[in-house]
Design brief:
Elements lengths: L8 E4 L5 H9 L9 H8 L5 E7 L2 E9 L8 H9 L3 E9 L8 H15 L4 E9 L3 H9 L3 E8 L4 E9 L10
Parallel strand pairs: 4-5
Antiparallel strand pairs: 1-2, 2-3, 3-4, 5-7, 6-7
């Protein structure tokens, strides 16, 4: 059975969401990096945007994005900071398996791009695993207009990521690409 596309309701991330968000993230390792409670506690103080998507009464996905100038130590975030471009960095964007291909990830991405435009950012940036591969995420971001601007090994050489950027145009009538 193919899921049907329905609207997702976006809202700010709440403390009551933390356990579900961590479980959703960590169930998707190695396609995404492990988060855990300590990782989430480290990440949230740096956030410029932290949203969850609800669909059919369930937490269907989430996004966490960080603006330039944060003291966040992620090597992927640091790569984009070192480029010197005014960007909004997507650290996490995940959709639960039951809600994939229903528009949840697009709604979350549109919200990130809206926030980036509202704060005058020139780019939205992120990374996608190449090793181990996350082909669905790479295809999603490529379809939205992201291009590879670098690669790097992380996790002591266990991972290789593609570092992606999407240049924003101020009056783009189609924020989704």
């Amino acid at each position: 059975m193919t899921p049907t596309s329905t609207s997702a309701r976006l809202r700010p991330l709440r403390p009551s969401d933390h356990a579900h968000l961590i479980a959703l993230n960590d169930a998707d390792v190695p396609r995404v990096g492990r988060l855990g409670r300590a990782g989430l506690d480290d990440l949230l103080p740096h956030c410029d945007l932290a949203l969850v998507a609800e669909r059919d009464g369930e937490l269907a996905g989430f996004v966490i994005a960080i603006a330039p100038g944060a003291t966040y130590g992620s090597p992927n975030y640091r790569f984009f900071e070192d480029r010197g471009t005014d960007h909004l960095y997507v650290d996490r964007l995940l959709t639960s398996p039951a809600h994939r291909r229903t528009g949840v990830a697009s709604a979350l991405s549109d919200a990130v791009e809206g926030r980036a435009r509202a704060t005058g950012r020139l780019e939205v940036t992120c990374e996608v695993n190449l090793r181990p591969a996350n082909p669905a995420s790479l295809a999603f971001h490529t379809a939205r207009g992201f291009v590879e601007v670098g690669r790097q090994d992380t996790g002591g050489g266990a991972l290789t990521v593609a570092l992606l950027a999407r240049t924003l145009t101020p009056n783009d009538p189609n924020p989704g690409g």
